[in-house]
Amino acid sequence: MKLSDKFLELAAVGSEWILWLLVGLSLLSVAVMIERVIFYMSVRGRDEALLKGLHVALADNDIARARALVKDCPAPGGRIAAQMLETSARGNGSMAAIMAALRPGEKLRLERNLNFLGTVGANAPFIGLLGTVLGIIETFRAIERQGVAGSAEYSTAVMSGIYEALVATAVGLLVAIPAVIAYNFFTRRVKALLGESDALTNMVLALFSHGKSDERGHT
Predict the structure, then answer these.
(1) Which of 24, 19, 11, 16 is nearest to 170 (CA)?
(2) What pLDDT, in 10s, does the model give residues 57-67?
(3) Cα–Cα distances in Å, from 66 out to 49, 70, 82, 190, 208?
């Protein structure tokens, strides 16, 4: 059997399974979007809200109050600051190291499943196009088997087959467009949250260092 015949056997499966695959990807994308929206809403503005309270507590060298403020905080900056304050007795170097070590993990936590949305957005149109090509191939093979070439029935069969095959491309675009929009939106949200996190953790480090400098100045 020729290699082309083997590919024709694949085309004989048609585009139905492509449509089901796209439907599955669409459902998974929606699930990821909902989960990410709920997560981002739970951490939105939390680091920014901590800035003033932590500033006052650390300016007063009240480490216990600062720890209480960031305890159980779900936002990335609060989580990092909590670990920084837990190691504050070891000095500024330890706090800076903790901050640098934990930031990549928090970034991954914020970006969870975003790569899936990006992959779906980039590849769903091609999956749909594959379904269209397979559908067109199968249409012409069916016409060849029926031997209706050159008749009105032939034209009708061709148009009907192409029409049905193009549905896969349309579905692929319908799956990809929301995924791309969501991916871009969530990526901007991650950058904003990381910016708030960096502002909070850098403030903690700076004020803690300043407070220690003041203590040494008074001794």
Answers:
(1) 19
(2) 888 888 889 89
(3) 13, 7, 8, 25, 11
DSSP secondary-structure letter at 62? -
Distances (CA, A) of 145 to 138, 139, 141: 11, 10, 6
Length of the chain: 219
Which residues, in sequence order, are CB contacts of 32 under 8 Å at separation 6+? Answer: 113, 116, 117, 182
pTM of this prediction exceeds 0.85: no
Q: Give the C-alpha separation, 203 to 193, whole Å.
A: 15
106 with 79: CB under 8 angstroms?
Answer: yes
Spatial separation of the C-alpha atoms in residues 15 and 169, rounded to whole Å:
10
Query: 75-105 in b/e burial notation, b at 16+ Cβ within 10 A?
Result: bbbbbbbbebbeebeeeeeebeebbeebbee
Is 175 in contact with 26 (CB distance < 8 Å)? yes
* Residue 197 amino acid letter: S
- CB-based contact 75:194 (threshold 8 Å): no
Unique residue bearing structure tokens 């049905």: 164
Are 20 and 170 contacting, i.e. CB atoms less than 8 angstroms apart?
A: no
Q: Among 64-68, 132-136, 191-195, which is the least confidently predicted range?
A: 132-136
Each residue of 15-34: pLDDT tens digit? Answer: 678 888 999 999 999 999 99
